[in-house]
Amino acid sequence: MNTITMRPPVTAAKADRSFWLQSIDADGVTAPLSGSETCDVAIVGGGYAGLWTALRIKEQAPQTEVTVLEADFCGSGASGRNGGQVHSWFAEIDMLRDLVGGDDALMLCRATADAIEELHGLQASGTIDMDLRLDGWLWTASSTAQEGAWAQAEALSRALGEARFQPLQRADILRRTGSAASYVGIMEGRAGTVQPAKLALGLRRLALSRGIVIHEHSPVLEIAPGPRPQLRTAKGALSAGKVVLAANAWLSAIPELHPYLYVVSSQVIATAPAADILERIGWVDGASICDAQHHVLYYQRTPAGHVIFGRGTGGIAYRDRIDGRFNRSGDAGADNVRELHRVYPQLKDVPVLYDWSGPIDCTAQHLPVFGHLKDHANVFYAMGFNGTGIAQAPVAGRIMASLVLGRDDVWSRCGLVGLGNRTRLPPEPLRYVGAKVVRRAIRRKNDLEILNRRPDPVTRFLARLAP
Prior knowledge:
The chain has 467 residues and is an alpha+beta fold.
Protein backbone atom coordinates (compact mmCIF):
# COMPACT_ATOMS: atom_id res chain seq x y z
CA MET A 1 0.00 0.00 0.00
CA ASN A 2 1.71 3.16 -1.25
CA THR A 3 0.95 6.41 0.52
CA ILE A 4 -0.23 9.23 -1.75
CA THR A 5 1.69 12.36 -0.82
CA MET A 6 -0.04 15.63 -1.63
CA ARG A 7 1.94 18.76 -2.46
CA PRO A 8 1.77 21.48 0.22
CA PRO A 9 -0.48 24.35 -0.92
CA VAL A 10 0.78 27.83 -1.68
CA THR A 11 -2.11 29.99 -0.56
CA ALA A 12 -2.41 33.58 -1.71
CA ALA A 13 -1.97 36.42 0.75
CA LYS A 14 -5.03 38.65 1.03
CA ALA A 15 -3.39 41.35 -1.09
CA ASP A 16 -2.68 38.78 -3.82
CA ARG A 17 -6.23 37.44 -3.99
CA SER A 18 -8.35 38.12 -7.04
CA PHE A 19 -10.56 41.15 -7.43
CA TRP A 20 -13.52 38.79 -7.20
CA LEU A 21 -12.48 37.48 -3.78
CA GLN A 22 -11.36 40.83 -2.37
CA SER A 23 -14.47 42.67 -3.52
CA ILE A 24 -16.72 40.46 -1.39
CA ASP A 25 -14.21 39.92 1.44
CA ALA A 26 -14.29 36.18 0.84
CA ASP A 27 -12.78 33.87 3.43
CA GLY A 28 -13.31 30.63 5.26
CA VAL A 29 -16.39 30.06 7.41
CA THR A 30 -15.95 26.45 8.51
CA ALA A 31 -13.59 24.95 11.06
CA PRO A 32 -10.45 23.03 10.08
CA LEU A 33 -10.48 19.28 10.52
CA SER A 34 -9.47 18.45 14.08
CA GLY A 35 -9.26 14.98 15.55
CA SER A 36 -10.67 11.91 13.85
CA GLU A 37 -13.78 11.81 11.66
CA THR A 38 -15.37 9.35 9.28
CA CYS A 39 -17.52 9.66 6.16
CA ASP A 40 -18.63 7.71 3.12
CA VAL A 41 -17.00 10.00 0.54
CA ALA A 42 -14.12 12.40 1.16
CA ILE A 43 -13.53 15.11 -1.44
CA VAL A 44 -10.15 16.85 -1.60
CA GLY A 45 -10.73 20.34 -2.99
CA GLY A 46 -13.47 22.88 -2.31
CA GLY A 47 -13.68 24.54 -5.72
CA TYR A 48 -16.30 24.12 -8.40
CA ALA A 49 -15.40 20.50 -9.23
CA GLY A 50 -15.33 19.34 -5.62
CA LEU A 51 -18.49 21.17 -4.57
CA TRP A 52 -20.50 20.12 -7.63
CA THR A 53 -19.40 16.52 -7.08
CA ALA A 54 -20.54 16.69 -3.46
CA LEU A 55 -23.88 18.20 -4.49
CA ARG A 56 -24.50 15.61 -7.23
CA ILE A 57 -23.75 12.73 -4.85
CA LYS A 58 -26.23 14.15 -2.34
CA GLU A 59 -28.85 14.60 -5.07
CA GLN A 60 -28.58 10.97 -6.13
CA ALA A 61 -27.87 9.34 -2.76
CA PRO A 62 -29.06 11.70 0.01
CA GLN A 63 -28.02 9.30 2.76
CA THR A 64 -24.36 9.42 1.71
CA GLU A 65 -22.09 11.18 4.18
CA VAL A 66 -19.85 13.56 2.22
CA THR A 67 -16.97 15.59 3.65
CA VAL A 68 -15.00 18.20 1.69
CA LEU A 69 -11.45 19.07 2.76
CA GLU A 70 -10.21 22.40 1.37
CA ALA A 71 -6.62 23.55 1.76
CA ASP A 72 -7.47 27.27 2.01
CA PHE A 73 -11.12 28.30 1.72
CA CYS A 74 -13.75 27.35 -0.83
CA GLY A 75 -13.24 29.28 -4.05
CA SER A 76 -9.75 30.50 -3.18
CA GLY A 77 -8.20 28.60 -6.08
CA ALA A 78 -9.10 28.65 -9.75
CA SER A 79 -12.80 28.88 -8.96
CA GLY A 80 -12.40 32.35 -7.48
CA ARG A 81 -9.61 33.64 -9.72
CA ASN A 82 -10.83 33.06 -13.28
CA GLY A 83 -12.23 35.51 -15.82
CA GLY A 84 -15.87 34.74 -15.04
CA GLN A 85 -16.69 33.59 -18.57
CA VAL A 86 -19.61 31.19 -19.05
CA HIS A 87 -19.96 29.27 -22.30
CA SER A 88 -20.83 25.75 -23.31
CA TRP A 89 -18.63 22.99 -24.69
CA PHE A 90 -20.01 23.61 -28.18
CA ALA A 91 -16.94 25.79 -28.72
CA GLU A 92 -14.85 22.61 -28.29
CA ILE A 93 -17.23 20.16 -29.95
CA ASP A 94 -14.72 19.33 -32.69
CA MET A 95 -12.03 18.48 -30.11
CA LEU A 96 -14.57 16.50 -28.10
CA ARG A 97 -15.63 14.53 -31.17
CA ASP A 98 -12.02 13.68 -32.00
CA LEU A 99 -11.49 12.40 -28.44
CA VAL A 100 -14.78 10.75 -27.45
CA GLY A 101 -16.78 10.33 -30.66
CA GLY A 102 -19.76 12.18 -32.07
CA ASP A 103 -22.51 10.87 -29.78
CA ASP A 104 -20.67 11.58 -26.54
CA ALA A 105 -19.49 14.95 -27.83
CA LEU A 106 -23.04 16.06 -28.55
CA MET A 107 -24.29 14.70 -25.22
CA LEU A 108 -21.58 16.53 -23.27
CA CYS A 109 -22.09 19.78 -25.15
CA ARG A 110 -25.84 19.68 -24.52
CA ALA A 111 -25.13 18.92 -20.86
CA THR A 112 -23.08 22.13 -20.52
CA ALA A 113 -25.90 24.08 -22.17
CA ASP A 114 -28.24 22.55 -19.57
CA ALA A 115 -25.75 23.52 -16.85
CA ILE A 116 -25.97 27.15 -17.94
CA GLU A 117 -29.73 26.95 -17.51
CA GLU A 118 -29.20 25.36 -14.10
CA LEU A 119 -27.01 28.31 -13.07
CA HIS A 120 -29.71 30.65 -14.33
CA GLY A 121 -32.26 28.77 -12.25
CA LEU A 122 -30.12 28.99 -9.11
CA GLN A 123 -29.88 32.74 -9.52
CA ALA A 124 -33.53 33.28 -10.51
CA SER A 125 -34.70 31.34 -7.45
CA GLY A 126 -32.50 33.39 -5.14
CA THR A 127 -30.46 30.33 -4.17
CA ILE A 128 -27.14 31.80 -5.36
CA ASP A 129 -26.51 35.44 -6.22
CA MET A 130 -23.69 35.13 -8.76
CA ASP A 131 -24.24 38.21 -10.98
CA LEU A 132 -25.02 35.89 -13.90
CA ARG A 133 -25.64 37.86 -17.10
CA LEU A 134 -26.47 35.79 -20.17
CA ASP A 135 -25.65 38.47 -22.72
CA GLY A 136 -23.56 36.21 -24.93
CA TRP A 137 -20.00 34.96 -25.44
CA LEU A 138 -18.07 36.54 -28.30
CA TRP A 139 -15.25 34.55 -29.94
CA THR A 140 -13.41 36.97 -32.18
CA ALA A 141 -10.41 37.55 -34.41
CA SER A 142 -8.20 40.61 -34.23
CA SER A 143 -5.74 39.54 -36.95
CA THR A 144 -5.85 37.57 -40.18
CA ALA A 145 -4.10 34.62 -38.51
CA GLN A 146 -6.99 34.31 -36.03
CA GLU A 147 -9.77 34.37 -38.63
CA GLY A 148 -11.88 31.23 -38.76
CA ALA A 149 -10.48 29.67 -35.58
CA TRP A 150 -14.06 28.73 -34.77
CA ALA A 151 -14.98 27.34 -38.19
CA GLN A 152 -14.80 23.61 -37.36
CA ALA A 153 -16.74 23.90 -34.10
CA GLU A 154 -19.38 26.12 -35.65
CA ALA A 155 -19.83 23.90 -38.71
CA LEU A 156 -20.01 20.69 -36.68
CA SER A 157 -22.54 22.18 -34.27
CA ARG A 158 -24.71 23.26 -37.17
CA ALA A 159 -24.40 19.87 -38.88
CA LEU A 160 -25.59 18.18 -35.67
CA GLY A 161 -28.67 20.39 -35.53
CA GLU A 162 -27.37 22.80 -32.90
CA ALA A 163 -27.38 26.33 -34.30
CA ARG A 164 -25.62 27.59 -31.21
CA PHE A 165 -23.58 30.35 -32.84
CA GLN A 166 -24.36 33.53 -34.72
CA PRO A 167 -21.89 35.24 -37.08
CA LEU A 168 -20.42 38.60 -36.07
CA GLN A 169 -19.05 41.30 -38.32
CA ARG A 170 -17.01 44.38 -37.51
CA ALA A 171 -20.03 46.59 -36.80
CA ASP A 172 -21.59 43.98 -34.49
CA ILE A 173 -18.42 43.62 -32.42
CA LEU A 174 -17.85 47.37 -32.19
CA ARG A 175 -21.45 47.90 -31.12
CA ARG A 176 -21.30 45.18 -28.45
CA THR A 177 -17.78 45.78 -27.07
CA GLY A 178 -16.87 49.36 -27.86
CA SER A 179 -13.54 48.11 -29.26
CA ALA A 180 -12.32 48.12 -32.86
CA ALA A 181 -9.53 45.61 -32.12
CA SER A 182 -11.55 42.58 -33.27
CA TYR A 183 -13.48 42.65 -36.52
CA VAL A 184 -15.02 39.21 -37.19
CA GLY A 185 -16.20 36.27 -35.10
CA ILE A 186 -19.15 34.32 -33.77
CA MET A 187 -21.36 34.61 -30.69
CA GLU A 188 -22.97 32.00 -28.46
CA GLY A 189 -26.13 33.75 -27.35
CA ARG A 190 -27.01 31.73 -24.26
CA ALA A 191 -23.72 32.41 -22.49
CA GLY A 192 -22.11 35.31 -20.67
CA THR A 193 -20.46 36.15 -17.37
CA VAL A 194 -20.62 35.56 -13.63
CA GLN A 195 -18.89 36.82 -10.51
CA PRO A 196 -16.98 33.56 -10.00
CA ALA A 197 -16.22 34.01 -6.29
CA LYS A 198 -19.89 34.65 -5.56
CA LEU A 199 -20.72 31.42 -7.37
CA ALA A 200 -18.11 29.45 -5.40
CA LEU A 201 -19.25 30.78 -2.04
CA GLY A 202 -22.86 30.25 -3.05
CA LEU A 203 -22.10 26.61 -3.81
CA ARG A 204 -20.44 26.36 -0.39
CA ARG A 205 -23.61 27.66 1.29
CA LEU A 206 -25.75 25.30 -0.75
CA ALA A 207 -23.55 22.33 0.13
CA LEU A 208 -23.68 23.13 3.84
CA SER A 209 -27.46 23.48 3.68
CA ARG A 210 -27.68 19.97 2.21
CA GLY A 211 -25.74 18.36 5.03
CA ILE A 212 -22.34 18.22 3.35
CA VAL A 213 -19.51 18.66 5.86
CA ILE A 214 -16.81 21.14 4.82
CA HIS A 215 -13.50 21.69 6.58
CA GLU A 216 -11.56 24.69 5.26
CA HIS A 217 -7.93 25.50 6.04
CA SER A 218 -7.39 21.73 6.05
CA PRO A 219 -4.76 20.82 3.46
CA VAL A 220 -4.44 17.09 2.97
CA LEU A 221 -0.85 16.04 3.57
CA GLU A 222 -1.13 12.40 2.60
CA ILE A 223 -3.63 9.68 1.84
CA ALA A 224 -3.12 6.09 2.94
CA PRO A 225 -5.11 3.95 0.44
CA GLY A 226 -6.91 0.80 1.43
CA PRO A 227 -10.46 -0.49 1.92
CA ARG A 228 -11.08 2.70 3.88
CA PRO A 229 -8.52 5.33 2.85
CA GLN A 230 -7.14 7.54 5.60
CA LEU A 231 -6.63 11.25 4.82
CA ARG A 232 -4.24 13.09 7.13
CA THR A 233 -4.16 16.83 7.72
CA ALA A 234 -2.04 18.86 10.13
CA LYS A 235 -4.52 18.48 12.99
CA GLY A 236 -6.79 15.63 12.04
CA ALA A 237 -7.52 12.44 10.19
CA LEU A 238 -10.49 11.48 8.04
CA SER A 239 -11.46 7.90 7.27
CA ALA A 240 -13.59 7.45 4.15
CA GLY A 241 -15.00 4.68 2.05
CA LYS A 242 -14.09 6.54 -1.15
CA VAL A 243 -11.97 9.56 -2.01
CA VAL A 244 -12.36 12.14 -4.77
CA LEU A 245 -9.32 14.20 -5.78
CA ALA A 246 -10.60 17.50 -7.16
CA ALA A 247 -7.61 19.71 -6.41
CA ASN A 248 -7.03 21.23 -9.86
CA ALA A 249 -3.36 21.80 -10.73
CA TRP A 250 -2.21 20.28 -7.44
CA LEU A 251 -2.94 16.80 -8.79
CA SER A 252 0.22 17.12 -10.87
CA ALA A 253 2.05 15.94 -7.73
CA ILE A 254 0.61 12.43 -8.11
CA PRO A 255 3.04 10.30 -10.16
CA GLU A 256 0.31 8.34 -11.95
CA LEU A 257 -1.40 11.55 -13.14
CA HIS A 258 1.59 13.77 -13.77
CA PRO A 259 2.45 12.34 -17.23
CA TYR A 260 -0.95 13.52 -18.50
CA LEU A 261 -1.17 16.87 -16.75
CA TYR A 262 0.80 20.07 -17.12
CA VAL A 263 0.39 23.33 -15.25
CA VAL A 264 0.47 26.82 -16.75
CA SER A 265 -0.34 30.22 -15.34
CA SER A 266 -2.98 32.70 -16.36
CA GLN A 267 -2.83 36.36 -15.41
CA VAL A 268 -5.76 38.71 -14.83
CA ILE A 269 -6.14 42.41 -14.04
CA ALA A 270 -9.08 44.55 -12.94
CA THR A 271 -9.42 48.28 -13.46
CA ALA A 272 -11.05 50.90 -11.32
CA PRO A 273 -14.73 51.45 -12.17
CA ALA A 274 -15.04 53.27 -15.50
CA ALA A 275 -18.76 52.96 -16.22
CA ASP A 276 -18.96 56.44 -17.78
CA ILE A 277 -16.28 55.64 -20.36
CA LEU A 278 -17.72 52.18 -21.08
CA GLU A 279 -21.20 53.55 -21.59
CA ARG A 280 -19.85 56.26 -23.88
CA ILE A 281 -18.18 53.67 -26.14
CA GLY A 282 -21.22 51.38 -26.01
CA TRP A 283 -19.92 48.54 -23.79
CA VAL A 284 -22.91 48.20 -21.51
CA ASP A 285 -23.82 44.54 -21.00
CA GLY A 286 -22.46 41.37 -19.46
CA ALA A 287 -21.10 39.62 -22.52
CA SER A 288 -17.85 37.70 -22.23
CA ILE A 289 -15.32 38.30 -24.98
CA CYS A 290 -12.19 36.51 -26.13
CA ASP A 291 -9.92 36.49 -29.14
CA ALA A 292 -8.44 33.53 -30.96
CA GLN A 293 -4.70 33.83 -30.36
CA HIS A 294 -2.93 30.88 -28.78
CA HIS A 295 -2.46 32.66 -25.44
CA VAL A 296 -6.03 33.84 -25.52
CA LEU A 297 -7.23 37.21 -24.28
CA TYR A 298 -10.49 37.13 -22.34
CA TYR A 299 -12.39 40.04 -20.87
CA GLN A 300 -15.65 41.37 -19.48
CA ARG A 301 -17.06 44.44 -17.73
CA THR A 302 -18.66 44.10 -14.32
CA PRO A 303 -22.04 45.63 -13.49
CA ALA A 304 -20.17 48.41 -11.63
CA GLY A 305 -17.94 49.14 -14.63
CA HIS A 306 -14.68 47.43 -13.71
CA VAL A 307 -12.92 45.88 -16.70
CA ILE A 308 -11.60 42.35 -16.09
CA PHE A 309 -8.89 41.51 -18.57
CA GLY A 310 -7.03 38.21 -18.61
CA ARG A 311 -4.53 36.29 -20.66
CA GLY A 312 -3.18 32.78 -20.61
CA THR A 313 0.50 33.47 -20.16
CA GLY A 314 1.76 29.92 -20.48
CA GLY A 315 4.06 30.42 -17.48
CA ILE A 316 5.38 27.13 -16.15
CA ALA A 317 7.45 25.70 -13.31
CA TYR A 318 9.95 22.83 -13.20
CA ARG A 319 8.21 19.57 -12.32
CA ASP A 320 5.02 21.64 -12.03
CA ARG A 321 6.06 22.85 -8.58
CA ILE A 322 3.58 25.61 -7.94
CA ASP A 323 4.96 28.55 -5.98
CA GLY A 324 4.06 32.14 -5.14
CA ARG A 325 4.55 33.27 -8.73
CA PHE A 326 1.32 31.46 -9.55
CA ASN A 327 -0.56 33.76 -7.15
CA ARG A 328 0.78 37.05 -8.46
CA SER A 329 3.23 37.67 -11.27
CA GLY A 330 5.33 40.42 -9.73
CA ASP A 331 5.16 42.71 -12.78
CA ALA A 332 1.81 44.34 -11.82
CA GLY A 333 0.19 42.66 -14.81
CA ALA A 334 2.32 44.63 -17.29
CA ASP A 335 1.64 42.35 -20.24
CA ASN A 336 -2.10 42.48 -19.65
CA VAL A 337 -2.03 46.24 -19.18
CA ARG A 338 -0.27 46.58 -22.53
CA GLU A 339 -2.90 44.42 -24.23
CA LEU A 340 -5.77 46.19 -22.44
CA HIS A 341 -4.58 49.52 -23.81
CA ARG A 342 -4.25 48.04 -27.30
CA VAL A 343 -7.81 46.74 -27.23
CA TYR A 344 -9.21 49.72 -25.29
CA PRO A 345 -7.03 52.83 -25.79
CA GLN A 346 -9.89 54.76 -24.19
CA LEU A 347 -8.89 53.21 -20.84
CA LYS A 348 -5.25 54.37 -20.78
CA ASP A 349 -5.91 56.79 -17.93
CA VAL A 350 -8.01 54.34 -15.87
CA PRO A 351 -6.00 52.85 -12.97
CA VAL A 352 -5.46 49.11 -12.73
CA LEU A 353 -6.27 48.28 -9.11
CA TYR A 354 -5.85 44.49 -9.00
CA ASP A 355 -3.57 41.96 -10.64
CA TRP A 356 -3.43 38.27 -9.85
CA SER A 357 -2.48 34.92 -11.33
CA GLY A 358 -3.46 31.31 -10.96
CA PRO A 359 -2.36 27.82 -12.00
CA ILE A 360 -4.38 26.01 -14.67
CA ASP A 361 -4.46 22.22 -14.96
CA CYS A 362 -4.10 21.27 -18.63
CA THR A 363 -4.12 18.07 -20.66
CA ALA A 364 -2.74 17.62 -24.17
CA GLN A 365 -6.26 17.34 -25.59
CA HIS A 366 -7.39 20.46 -23.66
CA LEU A 367 -10.28 18.49 -22.16
CA PRO A 368 -10.71 17.12 -18.63
CA VAL A 369 -10.31 13.51 -17.65
CA PHE A 370 -12.02 11.51 -14.90
CA GLY A 371 -11.40 8.10 -13.39
CA HIS A 372 -9.81 6.24 -10.51
CA LEU A 373 -6.17 5.51 -9.72
CA LYS A 374 -4.93 2.29 -11.30
CA ASP A 375 -4.21 0.43 -8.08
CA HIS A 376 -6.84 2.12 -5.93
CA ALA A 377 -10.36 1.65 -7.28
CA ASN A 378 -11.84 3.78 -4.48
CA VAL A 379 -9.65 6.84 -5.13
CA PHE A 380 -11.09 8.93 -7.95
CA TYR A 381 -9.82 12.04 -9.73
CA ALA A 382 -11.18 14.92 -11.81
CA MET A 383 -8.54 17.02 -13.55
CA GLY A 384 -7.56 18.96 -16.65
CA PHE A 385 -10.23 21.64 -16.93
CA ASN A 386 -7.87 23.79 -19.00
CA GLY A 387 -9.27 27.05 -17.66
CA THR A 388 -12.84 26.33 -18.79
CA GLY A 389 -14.98 25.17 -15.91
CA ILE A 390 -17.97 27.30 -14.94
CA ALA A 391 -20.47 25.49 -17.17
CA GLN A 392 -18.34 22.34 -17.30
CA ALA A 393 -17.95 21.63 -13.56
CA PRO A 394 -21.67 20.85 -13.07
CA VAL A 395 -21.25 18.18 -15.76
CA ALA A 396 -18.04 16.96 -14.16
CA GLY A 397 -19.99 16.57 -10.93
CA ARG A 398 -22.44 14.24 -12.69
CA ILE A 399 -19.60 12.13 -14.10
CA MET A 400 -17.85 11.91 -10.74
CA ALA A 401 -21.06 11.09 -8.85
CA SER A 402 -21.78 8.20 -11.20
CA LEU A 403 -18.24 6.87 -10.83
CA VAL A 404 -18.24 7.19 -7.04
CA LEU A 405 -21.70 5.67 -6.63
CA GLY A 406 -20.92 2.81 -9.03
CA ARG A 407 -23.61 3.74 -11.54
CA ASP A 408 -23.55 2.30 -15.05
CA ASP A 409 -24.92 5.19 -17.09
CA VAL A 410 -24.05 7.70 -19.81
CA TRP A 411 -21.88 9.65 -17.39
CA SER A 412 -19.72 6.80 -16.12
CA ARG A 413 -19.41 5.40 -19.67
CA CYS A 414 -18.62 8.68 -21.42
CA GLY A 415 -15.38 9.07 -23.31
CA LEU A 416 -13.89 11.52 -20.82
CA VAL A 417 -13.47 8.68 -18.33
CA GLY A 418 -10.06 7.03 -18.25
CA LEU A 419 -6.53 7.80 -19.37
CA GLY A 420 -6.39 5.15 -22.09
CA ASN A 421 -6.88 7.56 -24.99
CA ARG A 422 -4.88 10.45 -23.50
CA THR A 423 -1.50 11.71 -24.65
CA ARG A 424 1.43 11.32 -22.30
CA LEU A 425 3.64 14.37 -22.01
CA PRO A 426 7.46 14.27 -22.05
CA PRO A 427 9.32 13.60 -18.79
CA GLU A 428 11.44 16.17 -17.00
CA PRO A 429 13.71 17.94 -17.73
CA LEU A 430 12.64 17.71 -21.39
CA ARG A 431 9.14 18.83 -20.48
CA TYR A 432 10.29 22.02 -18.77
CA VAL A 433 12.99 22.97 -21.28
CA GLY A 434 10.71 22.23 -24.22
CA ALA A 435 7.84 24.18 -22.71
CA LYS A 436 10.06 27.22 -22.18
CA VAL A 437 11.19 27.16 -25.81
CA VAL A 438 7.66 26.62 -27.14
CA ARG A 439 6.24 29.35 -24.89
CA ARG A 440 8.73 31.89 -26.24
CA ALA A 441 7.84 30.88 -29.79
CA ILE A 442 4.12 31.23 -29.12
CA ARG A 443 4.58 34.68 -27.60
CA ARG A 444 6.73 35.75 -30.55
CA LYS A 445 4.15 34.34 -32.98
CA ASN A 446 1.27 36.10 -31.21
CA ASP A 447 3.06 39.44 -31.15
CA LEU A 448 3.85 39.27 -34.87
CA GLU A 449 0.45 37.99 -35.95
CA ILE A 450 -1.41 40.70 -34.06
CA LEU A 451 0.41 43.09 -36.43
CA ASN A 452 -0.55 40.87 -39.40
CA ARG A 453 3.08 39.92 -39.88
CA ARG A 454 4.07 36.34 -40.70
CA PRO A 455 6.40 34.65 -38.19
CA ASP A 456 9.55 32.98 -39.44
CA PRO A 457 9.46 29.20 -40.19
CA VAL A 458 11.34 28.24 -37.00
CA THR A 459 8.91 30.18 -34.82
CA ARG A 460 5.93 28.61 -36.58
CA PHE A 461 7.41 25.12 -36.19
CA LEU A 462 8.15 25.53 -32.50
CA ALA A 463 4.72 27.02 -31.76
CA ARG A 464 3.08 23.98 -33.38
CA LEU A 465 4.76 21.74 -30.80
CA ALA A 466 2.44 23.04 -28.07
CA PRO A 467 0.06 20.36 -26.74
